[in-house]
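ABC transporter A family member 8
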Amino acid sequence: MMGIYKKSSGSAYIAGFDLSTQLSQIYKCVGICPQYDILWGYLTVYDHLLFYARLKKSLLNKALENNTDESAYISQIAENFFLLEIKNKVVKNLSGGQKRLLSIAIAFIGEPKVVFLDEPTTGLDPQMRRLIWNIINKNKKNKTIVLSTHSMEEVEVLCDKVGILVKGRLVCVDSPSKIKHIYGKQYHVTINCNPNNLHRTSQFIEDIIPNNSTVIDSSSNGKTWRVSSSPGIIPNVYKQISSRKSDLYIDDWGINQSTLEDTFISIVSQK
């Protein structure tokens, strides 16, 4: 999508520009965060932001329309991406999460129309991952963000539209909820009950769900089944459990649609 590899066929447009013939215009309106951080160890955070701001001069000039000067704009970027307190630190002394924040901040400099983020949170701890998701959500206004990731949780948090690639082919494009509805068609049935009654309760559940259902989680006081949906199955399961939960000593139960990760695995296994 950035012209590094020659296309095999077809055409593509980014911000209205032809990828084959108008790369110079495309480069002026995009921001990129590669999978691996490309930073200089002996430059500070501020130095990096300033360097890339000046490199993206055409974007920066537009961004500066609402700011007093270049320095104020850089400080605002640092604040937006939680880098203000470390802006004078050299990069070699930053943590992995801080380096990732800097790489993402660089991609957003100059308010580009299109931002490419390649695996933005891979390898980060849950707290830093959540912070970056919040930052991306807060800064996505008036932009198209193209995100590549293997994390289905990340997809559900950040993406309005999802494309799933299998062996290099795009097999579906839609919202996460529609993809789950169209391709998932599976539900998770979960029960928790008195341990002494688990066998009896499990037998009851397995009598009312399809024979091809599978147990995906089990403990001393509960189980979860993956159930393929067909007309009437889920309403019937709901009705049956509701009517028997007291005499089966069911403390807690639920029926949930399968996750996007379950759906992704299902799509990949069918191709």
